[in-house]
Design goal:
This protein is mostly helical and 98 residues long. 49% of the residues lie in helices and 4% in strands.
Length: 98
């Protein structure tokens, strides 16, 4: 923090800023956000971690959904192929010539 001067008219010596307050109690774990009574947080780092985690979860869900759609599409294509083969056999059955 920068040094600041006292008010005009007072002595010209430089004054140090007040020391930060001492926090009592054990420190909280790094990953846990500090929540207010309403369930919101004022800690910027915690808010940042929460938003990052939410975005990661959203991306993961999107990837899983895309993989599921791809697998379903592949399965439908296999079923269509098998149905086409079956219909072809019904229309044009094999005849054995002796």
């Amino acid at each position: 923090m920068a040094w600041r001067r006292s008010k005009p008219g007072a002595s010209r010596e430089e004054v140090q800023p007040p020391a930060p307050p001492v926090v009592q109690g054990p420190p909280l774990p790094e990953m846990l956000p500090v929540l207010d009574d309403e369930g919101t947080t004022t800690d910027r780092e915690a808010t940042k971690r929460l938003k990052t985690a939410e975005a990661d979860l959203k991306r993961l869900k999107k990837k899983e959904h895309k993989a599921l759609k791809t697998e379903m599409r592949r399965q439908r294509a296999i079923e269509k192929r098998l149905a086409r083969i079956e219909m072809s056999r019904e229309r044009h059955p094999y005849t054995l010539m002796t």
